[in-house]
Amino acid sequence: MTSRFARAAAAGAALAVSASAFAACSSEPETTPDDVITIFAPENPDMDLDDNAFTKVIEEKFDVDLQFETTTYDGTAAGEKRQISLASGDYPDAYMLIPWVDQFNNDELVKLGGQGIIVQLDDLIGEDTPNIAAAFEDEPDYKKAATASDGNIWGLPQWNECFHCSYGTKLWMNSAWLDTLGLEQPTTPEEMRTVLEAFKTQDPNGNGKADEIPLSGDLGGTVLQYLMNPFVYTSGINAEGTTPASLAAVDGEVVLQPTRDEWRTAIAYVNSLYEDGLIDEGTFTQNGEALYAKGNSAEGVILGSVATLHPAVFVDLAAADGRGAQYDAVPPLTGPNGSDTSWNGPSGAGGASFVITNRASEAKQRKLMQIMDFIYSYEGHLQGEFGIEGVNWAPPESGDVPLDETVEPLYKTLTLPEGEGLNNAWGAMTQYFSDETFRGGQIVSTDVYDPAGYERRLFEATKLYEGHESGEAFPYWDIRISGDTASELATIQTNVESAVVQASAEFATGTRDIESDEDWAEFQQNLTDLGAERYVEIYQQAWDETK
Q: How far apart are the two ends of the chain, measured CA to CA in Å?
């Protein structure tokens, strides 16, 4: 996993490349024959898109030859390669991305569309694309997400109603350790301190060594979110500046949370835990691989709790010693701010993960939209995301229980021997319309601690967080900012959010003294110098215009 601090610097570089890319793409690129379609796409290490089973399905069904220019699942590397692809002038017929890796934002779409580099899709969506049209009709917010600030549809975003993803600020605690020590799950910040102190000092893993790590996380995790939300609404960290993670809506006003006294109190609480050795020293510097290594230590179970989206991030669910079943979600803590948690926003953000470029002839444009419409269909979605029927997935049988028991069972994924069936699907590249019915209809084991019941484990855990959303969540996903203002905002947002991430880690670890009025004033001045007031002003004005 790439360091978020490194990715922040890379994001600024990517913006610079982006500007030159748009300027470089003024001439019409050469195209390939109508039966050859070139696509830029991310490819994970287990995939070979050229030889992928779903690629072959598409090629046979639509009588085309797909040729891929690939990148990795690393967001920084993928974003840079996409910009270089555009800047070269020899870009493909289409880009098909994954939003949590990289995608086109609204400003890019408007610029590229205005320059004629990408194709407007409004007139290509209709009778010839019934599944896409139905998705827009069934979920108006999805069509809204697909519509850029200039009123045009330049690309298609993904819409993934992933219930457990919607509440990313989770804490997973070792219930076996709680049982050993005769403790209950904590419900307040002070009870959290008591539990973490017991994990540190009372040898809950029983090996006679003081090797327990009470609480850990990584650069992409949610330690700060979980611990700070009881004091002040904290939506997350985003050093890349792709979202205004530090903003909140307080009584109709846009507020930069790190300017508030409540934020200072919250980070002081985190620092107190860190100073007492209750938070892993590596939390603010280690990547996901380092965290996973700790969760699967050969010396035994050493992690007491981890703040992250789900436990597979830090522990092998199928470990022979059963450690994968030891961790349960702890509901949001109740503090001075009530019992708040952060909600990740709607199921699909604005922008686009699929666009067609002016390299594609009209025949190719129609073919690409037909391919996408197939991916939106039930049949295409199953094959595209999971693979081959009877190998990677199967239809329901009598007695099968869906993930959401209020909907009809639709399909179940099949577990294959390790290494088999990995190149049968495009996976996350095809999650264009995963609504509640599709995701909830997946048949999942009722044993939540069996790897086969993992989705149900996440579903049930998330129920503990549902209803605890803060009323201060800032609806940035409903806001469109374009033109010169968007360019100005991009720079300010990256600078401010990156500074907040860095300062948060420094205050949490004591590199900066949160109790020092001088250090606090210096941080506030730093935010001002980076344009914090203008940052808030731009979003306030844009938000007011949506009301």
A: 39
